[in-house]
Amino acid sequence: MTFSELLQGILARVEGSIGIAIMGLDGLAIEQAQVPSKTDLGERVALIATSHATLLRNTMRMSSDTGVGALNELTLMSDRFLLVVRLIGREYFLIIALSPGGNLGRARFELRKAHLLLEKEFI
To answer: Which of 8, 42, 55, 70 is the most buried (most CB within 10 A)?
Structure first.
């Protein structure tokens, strides 16, 4: 299964999904996919992820420094969308954007499954 097929499958199974990407913590997109829609948000998932990569790196550092442990997942909610980030190894992450009414639980489940499939590729 290719990265593109994996991402398209997740988008198909998660109600309210807008876009998804595999990203490096350096802000570079490895692969991305979006649901064709009237909104341009899906096309901007990698840009949004790039902008949040610094926040993610800082959160990872803070989580470790305060003794909370290694960060595995982060959820961000705004009035326009939900972002769920799932780390893959030390340098990569999956990010999915959902509409405000999207299925957050299913998104988290699908990212966890994808993490298990991808972790060998990104060690």
So the answer is: 42
Position with higher pLDDT, 58 vs 39 = 58
What pTM, to 2 d.p., does this model score? 0.88
CATH fold label, 3-118: Beta-Lactamase (3.30.450)
Q: Phi and psi of 39, rounded to 5°?
A: -90, 150
Distance of CA 93 to the CA centre of its chain: 6
- Whole-angstrom CA distances from 122 to 1, 57, 85 are 15, 17, 16
Query: What are the φ/ψ torsions at residue 37 (nearest 5 degrees)?
Result: -155, 180
Q: What is the largest CA-CA distance in the chain?
A: 43
Condensed to tens digits (0 to 9), the pLDDT of residues 66-108 reads 988 888 999 999 888 899 999 998 889 999 999 999 999 999 9
What is the spatial distance between Cα 36 and Cα 56, in angstroms, rounded to a whole number?
Answer: 27
Cβ(85)–Cβ(72) below 8 Å: no
